[in-house]
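Incident log, structure service

09:12 report received: a user says their structure output differs between two submissions of the same chain.
09:20 pulled the input from the user's history:
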Amino acid sequence: MTDVETIGAAVDRFLAGERTLALTALVLKSSGDAQERLCRAACASRDAHFPARTVEVRSVLEVSNVCRQRCRYCSMWEAEGSPRYTLAGEAIAAIADGVYARGRRVLMLQSGENPSPAFVSHMAAAVSRVKAAHADLRLILCLGSLSLEQFRELRQAGAERYILKFESSSPELYHSVKPSDTLGHRLAAMEAALESGFLLGSGSIVGLPQQRLEDVAADLLCTTRWRLGMVSASVFVPGERSGFAAEPPGDVNLTLNAMAILRLLNPDCLIPSTSSLDRIEPGAQLRGLRAGANTVTIHDGTPDELKAAFPIYSSQRIMPREVYLRELVQRAGLQWAEEALK
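09:34 re-ran on a clean worker, output below:
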């Protein structure tokens, strides 16, 4: 058999339910007709579990750029000229009022990793304030690894969801990317978030330096270890001021295949198609929706004057506005959700 025939046969076996590490790694190499069949199957699985064919729309507010981690892919801690900031509770509440008035019903509050009791209590108070004003506004927190007690404090304040990516299921690769952390610590935090009652989202980065195809496959299969409500496979974008600045970006086709596989492994989960795909290849965010994704994010929460101070991979990130995302959703044959999907 040719390589194309071998990969095509692997896709058939995967779709029939065979989910070994070696087979998953082979499916990740799909292109052409094999990739089209993989993505069609992923979309069919999504549509079976989300029959309204709607896409959840999230606003994001980057509440603080204080971070204890030293991730080698991230520009934030290398940004010497960027002042550190933490938004006051009043500012968070006012911004939440604004995104709610624009029709958004899902808001993600994101920060660097800061487990200080003062910061976590500050966020819990902000969450309580926002939920008191807008009980139907679904709040997602993305604040990094915390303790069980801190997760419970935030959950009791009213936040419903939490995003905590494991990034790589390989302990060695994880530590090489995040030298100030360990995979064991990250996984323990994920377990604590679940125990506290959060709907948890997690996932990996595709295309990290020194990452093998088998590592990507292992990451995808790893997502089935937990009862997740959200999963993701994000393309690696080298931060312009990070330790990986000179590294090549992740491969878009590999990432799209990973997203389709994630959908087939986690059929009822929310899966984002992110703007970072467009950063690598214009038009790839639309392809993400056609690979089974059903979530998009609008960067309309963070005040304009602070956006450059939160440079995960660049101070010039692609931040698509609503009109662009509405067009993508329409072109994907999907519907714009006016409410949270979970």
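09:41 both user submissions now match this output. Likely a transient worker issue. Closing.
09:42 reviewer note: The chain is about 45% helix and 15% strand. The first helix runs from residue 3 to 15.
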